[in-house]
Amino acid sequence: MAENPGITITGASGRMGQALLKAVMESDRARLVGAVEIAGHPWIGQDVGEALGGQPIGVSVTDDALEAFAVSQAVIDFTAPKATLEFAALAAQARAVHVIGTTGMTDSEISQLEPASRHAVIVRAGNMSLGVNLLTKLTEKVAAALDEDFDIEIIETHHNHKVDAPSGTALMLGEAAALGRNVTLSDVRDSGRDGIASGRKRGDIGFSAIRGGDIVGEHDVLFASSGERIVLRHMATDRGIFVRGAMKAALWGQDKMPGHYTMMDVLGL
């Protein structure tokens, strides 16, 4: 029987990093072979198990991503755009599946993943959950069915430590709405309203971001017209849904040809 694929987690000490470490350690379908943090981090050199407050497991946290990736069949990456671009090149060298949950990437940064995707599998998504990806598909279909008499507003709510806005999921939903209307999101995006404005432009897709407390993630897609409203909603109460999606993507990519995939591909949507 073939050995389970080895997975390395980047940003190991973060919220998602720790959740992913635990998930891989507990999995009967994958092995934890690496954990990466930035140079100078207190976890560097520590055994992962001990860093998490448990028993040693024989895998140490390192700041040498290339060394960790070299023994990996997959890398799961919820870090920052600059780091993700560096990891993409290194994962491609190792021919490891690169699962990217990093948010806040610009169109230019996303395009910079293209060279790596010619050599390895990249699975990138603004949100890894099954529910959100179903919501994305529904948003596209509803937007296609309704004309511009219906204003589209995407309202996203997250914890008070989230640094990017709109969220990656909100932008993913906006892209779906734009696709349904056969327009380009950058041409119709309306966000960051403040002060006295001239009113909403017909056909625009609006974004509103709310930050507070420990909210994991809530996303509403509002279609509002004169006399009626349609609201599509997804509420996340446990980060485990993102962990399970990322793990599913890492395993799904093992027998795929190099390319840039999304969770829609992973879920067969």
Describe the structure.
- The protein has 269 residues and is α/β, with parallel strands linked by helices.
- The protein folds into two domains: 6-124 and 239-267, 3-Layer(aba) Sandwich (Rossmann fold); 130-236, Dihydrodipicolinate Reductase, domain 2.
- Helices cover 36% and strands 24% of the residues.
- It is built from eleven helices and twelve strands.
- It has a seven-stranded parallel sheet with strand order 3-2-1-4-5-6-12, sandwiched between helices. Strands 8-9-7-10-11 form a five-stranded mixed sheet.
In short:
This protein is α/β, with parallel strands linked by helices. The chain has helices at 15-26, 48-51, 65-70, 81-94, 107-111, 114-117, 130-145, 168-181, 185-188, 240-252, 263-267, and strands spanning 6-10, 31-36, 61-62, 74-77, 97-100, 121-124, 151-158, 189-191, 205-211, 217-225, 228-236, 259-261.
Please specify the SSE layout and strand pairing.
Blueprint: E1 6-10, H1 15-26, E2 31-36, H2 48-51, E3 61-62, H3 65-70, E4 74-77, H4 81-94, E5 97-100, H5 107-111, H6 114-117, E6 121-124, H7 130-145, E7 151-158, H8 168-181, H9 185-188, E8 189-191, E9 205-211, E10 217-225, E11 228-236, H10 240-252, E12 259-261, H11 263-267
Overall CATH architecture of the largest domain: 3-Layer(aba) Sandwich
CATH class of the largest domain: Alpha Beta
Q: What about the largest sheet?
A: 7 strands, parallel
CATH homologous superfamily label of the largest domain = NAD(P)-binding Rossmann-like Domain
